[in-house]
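dumping this here before i forget
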Amino acid sequence: MPQRRTIQVAEDGRMNLPADIRRVLGLSGAGRIILMQDEDGIHLTTAADSLRRVRELAAPFRRGSGSVVDEFIAERRADSGED
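structure:
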């Protein structure tokens, strides 16, 4: 369920994320977050979560289990008749 929070923003633009939000993001101590703005508002995530999401989106298009570069080279060699 979405949470609504009011966070104080200092004159220099700094703000503190509440501990429970940092826990949800998997942050302990210092770290970095990714802030995204779209028509629905502002969203916070981590690089690890963004990478996981990209992998999920790309999974249906993944053809093999090896290196994409190795597959590309093998296809080119096959097309040219090389061994």
